[in-house]
């Protein structure tokens, strides 16, 4: 019989689970302590998927990946573990909260803090891209941790993928995976040649939400939400939060450009722009033009009139949603 995972039990090498603090694509995240009082963050592979060979392999790959990555803006992985048929990953814990909880508690976050978070996360994504050509593919406030000192740290690499062909998330060509609220148009279309600019778009959605307190697009149906990311122009951050500067609003507009060539062309370019805005200066890179489909307030692009790729992307997304629903019903 499988061990019941809940607060109060001890697993592995003496890790006592104190409370559930979040969820990931692979399972639940707990805060845990050891006898010496040290606290840890433990990600546990969901019990409903431990019999799924692909999920176990994906989890073990995340463990391997995190053990190879070393950056001050990453929540450091400490060790993998297995307790009977329960797999888990132990990571460092620092006092603080997720960006998701911070947004909920404050509704919106001040511009200087958000720009500081942006720079920190962009720096670690630059590192993972430069070192491994790694795409995170699941950037969202839940996967960004804000320490008590105000430092942003990244986690949630369960569906990361190398652009050089090594899929950490085991997803094949033509299959869309991620969180619809934060996915880039090309990620939704399941384009084969995704690069760092897809993550840059996802980070742009996160920054938009942090500044405004709400997402740029909201829909109950994932397919409609994904369609909006492919074809519609969000209101500018400035129009939804007048306290945001024009320069910061323009920075977010560029991150959310529909076409990859209209976004920043390197992580360093984004970092330089964000640093300039943080210092009260204009971004150094060229602003996105209104013809690119961003900028807020421009006329939304036609849902089906922009390009054949959009139509194909929508069809693929519909098929994916149907498959996911069918699998969930089968699993239930």
Keywords, separated by commas or semicolons:
332 residues, alpha+beta, Transferase(Phosphotransferase), domain 1, three-stranded antiparallel beta sheet, 10 helices, globular
The helix/strand order is EEEEHEEEHHEEEEHHHHHHH
Give me the CATH fold name of the largest domain: Transferase(Phosphotransferase), domain 1
Distance N to C terminus: 19 Å
Query: What is the count of structural domains?
Result: 2
Write down how many β-strands occur, each being a DSSP E stretch of 2 or more residues: 11
Give the CATH superfamily of the largest domain. Answer: Transferase(Phosphotransferase) domain 1
**Outline:** globular
Q: Structural class of the helices, strands and pairings?
A: alpha+beta
Helical proportion, percent range: 25-40%
Mean pLDDT: 82
Q: What is the CATH class designation of the largest domain?
A: Mainly Alpha
User: How many distinct helices?
Assistant: 10
CATH architecture grouping of the largest domain: Orthogonal Bundle
Neighbour order of strands in the largest sheet: 1-2-3-4-6-5
**Approximately what portion of the residues adopt beta-strand conformation?**
15-25%
């Amino acid at each position: 019989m499988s061990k019941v995972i809940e607060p109060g039990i001890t697993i592995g090498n003496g890790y006592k689970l104190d409370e559930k603090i979040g969820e990931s694509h692979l399972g639940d995240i707990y805060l845990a302590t050891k006898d010496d009082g040290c606290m840890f963050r433990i990600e546990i592979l969901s019990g409903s998927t431990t019999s799924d060979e692909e999920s176990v392999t994906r989890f073990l790959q995340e463990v391997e990946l995190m053990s190879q990555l070393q950056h001050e803006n990453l929540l450091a992985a400490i060790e993998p573990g297995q307790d009977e048929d329960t797999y888990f990953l132990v990571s460092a814990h620092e006092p603080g909260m997720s960006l998701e909880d911070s947004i909920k508690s404050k509704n919106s976050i001040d511009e200087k803090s958000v720009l500081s978070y942006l720079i920190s996360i962009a720096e670690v994504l630059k590192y993972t891209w430069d070192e491994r050509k790694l795409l995170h593919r699941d950037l969202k406030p839940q996967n960004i941790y804000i320490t008590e000192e105000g430092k942003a740290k990244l986690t949630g690499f369960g569906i990361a993928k190398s652009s050089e062909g090594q899929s950490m998330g085991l997803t094949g060509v033509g299959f869309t995976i991620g969180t619809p609220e934060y996915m880039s148009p090309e990620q939704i279309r399941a384009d084969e040649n995704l690069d760092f600019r897809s993550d840059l778009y996802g980070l742009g959605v996160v920054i938009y939400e942090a500044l405004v307190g709400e997402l740029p697009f909201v829909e109950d149906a994932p397919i409609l939400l994904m369609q909006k990311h492919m074809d519609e122009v969000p209101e500018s951050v400035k129009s939804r939060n007048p306290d945001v500067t024009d320069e910061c609003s323009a920075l977010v507009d560029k991150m959310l450009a529909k076409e990859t060539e209209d976004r920043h062309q390197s992580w360093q370019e984004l970092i330089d722009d964000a640093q300039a805005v943080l210092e009260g200066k204009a971004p150094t890179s060229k602003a996105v033009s209104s013809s690119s489909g961003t900028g807020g307030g421009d006329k939304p692009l036609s849902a089906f009139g922009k390009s054949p790729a959009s139509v194909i992307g929508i069809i693929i997304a519909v098929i994916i949603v149907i498959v996911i629903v069918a699998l969930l019903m089968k699993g239930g």
